[in-house]
Amino acid sequence: MRMKVIFAVCFILLGLTAFGQSPQVFFPLADVKEGLRGTARTVFKGTVPTEFNVEILGVLNGGVGPKQDMIIGRLSGGEADRTFVFAGMSGSPVYIDGKLLGSISYSFPFSKEPICGITPIEQMIGIFEKNLPMKAKIDAPKAITQAQLSATTWQPNGLPTSAVTSVLVDAKFSSLVGQTFQPISTPISFSGFSQETLNLFAPQLQTLGFTAVSAIGGAAKITPLKMFDDKTLLGGSSVSMQLTRGDYSMAAAGTVTYRNGDKIYAFGHPFLSLGVSDLPMSESHVVTVIPNLNNSFKLAVADALVGSMTQDRNTGVFGKLGQQPKMIPVKLNVRTSRGNNEIYDFEIAKDDFLSPLLMNISVFNSITATERSLGDTTVTVKGTIDVAGQEAIKIDRRFSSGQANAFTAGTVANVTGMLLNSGFQNVEVSKISLDITSFDGSKTAVLDRTILDRSEVKAGETFEIQAFLRTDAGTLIVQKIPVKVPNDTPAGTLLVSLGDGNSVQQVSPMRQFVPKTLGELIKNINQIKKNDRFYAQLYRITNGAIIGSNELPNLPPSVLATLNSDRSTGGVTPTVLTVLSEQEIAPIEYVVSGQQVLTIEVVK
């Protein structure tokens, strides 16, 4: 019996050791003093970490944040003499007397010596080990404006700005460059992306603390989650947050500081300060580290998916091995101006902030990779965004200008961002499918004037609008549009409006609403006017109101008096124009724009 107990204990200990759960001794922050010497580990090439020397220069109290200290060190020896502190080194573990001290996480830009900031391991683990009670999430829908619904650009909310970038922009603060510790930049490798795309989005990525790097090794295959073992992502190993994989690959590289069983601690500084996250975490190998006077960086290639990064906080990132992250499958079918079809299949990380950015970059790259980048183009995008448990969001837009490619990408990113940042919990985007067609040259026409074929009409009859359009080449074309007056229209004057989708949307009496459900938000997204065609509307001056996203026309005086009672205010927008009928006109060869209003008399 005694032998069985001993055997069981030994078996448990062996199991814990095999999966990296053996007790780890940490070097106490209280014992850190100037002159201590230790070693650090990181990958300079391949997958095997290499050691180099670290000399402790002191401790900067509150250097990371409130009650979060930073240890200052100087690197030397081995490859560190060649590269100094480099982008992708974030998280490299530092040991003193075999005990883990922390991770190399901060640096001085333009420093003449390899001085680094080290985040203590106690603070890295402490911020993730606090088991705070989780509050139940509830829906908190946000107000949506018509301008947001029809926007053709995506603007991230709360975009962080790199201190270095801000300093370089303003010459008055140029003296501060190199005098402030900065989180070590994170190299993000791009595979399958054109140089034009990198040039366009590099400044935006730089403000996020990323260094854009062209990848070596081609696209990252969409592979299933790999089972981890005792050699997976140990301290000093290179780790990648795989933001996009498939025909396109975007992967942000860093270094593992410490592994405890299936728990991974890395970076030593925030990745993007996302808080709770669910980003793909992959093994990676390093092609080489490229020395650079400004900021050396490593070329890393993402390998097998092994888990998920679940927390992104001030003192580092935390991940779980064996946990499958949620991804959004994307399929783009691009028909080029030369008649070729290109199909791109990939996945993007599901994140409120990152997903729209990734869609913006990917869609723009899909068009420009095979089309010209200068001059006017005409681009049509049609497709769906599938949402679990809801009707699909339909996308149908057409742009014709020198910025058509950017507008197309921005439209898709805007809708994706609006959906994920709507305030509704558990929004599950199951798939994004888009058909994109591109033509060289501009196809635009402006509404020059309109003529009605009569001045009077009876209820139930049809009259005709003649729309005279002038193309960008100066040619005048005529479009004849029949419009029927509703059968129950009383006698009186009607306003006849003919305008493109954007113009009609801008004069809509509903400027802003708060959707009550996710389904209501999707319904309003699908009702957005299309920008490339005309809409014919019949208006009448009446008393009505807008409640939420619903228009209530021709309200009786008693109802209006109740809504505008002295006892209540807000939630109701009075209107004086009521739309009696609206007709979407079939699109023509040209992307049309402009709006004009005429009157017609309804007689008995």
Structure description:
The protein has 604 residues and is an alpha+beta fold. It contains 11 helices and 33 strands. α7 (354-368) runs antiparallel to α8 (404-420). Mean pLDDT is 83; it is low at 1-23, 132-136, 160-178 and 566-572.
Structural class: alpha+beta
Number of strands: 33
If strands are numbered along the chain, what order do they take across the biggest sheet? 1-2-3-7-6-5
Helix content: 10-25%
**Average predicted confidence as pLDDT:** 83
Residues in β-strands, percent: 35-45%
Number of helices: 11
Indicate the overall shape.
Answer: elongated
Q: Please describe the biggest sheet, giving its number of strands, its sense, and whether it closes into a barrel.
A: 6 strands, antiparallel, barrel
Q: CA-to-CA gap between the ends?
A: 105 Å
Low-confidence blocks of residues: 1-23, 132-136, 160-178, 566-572
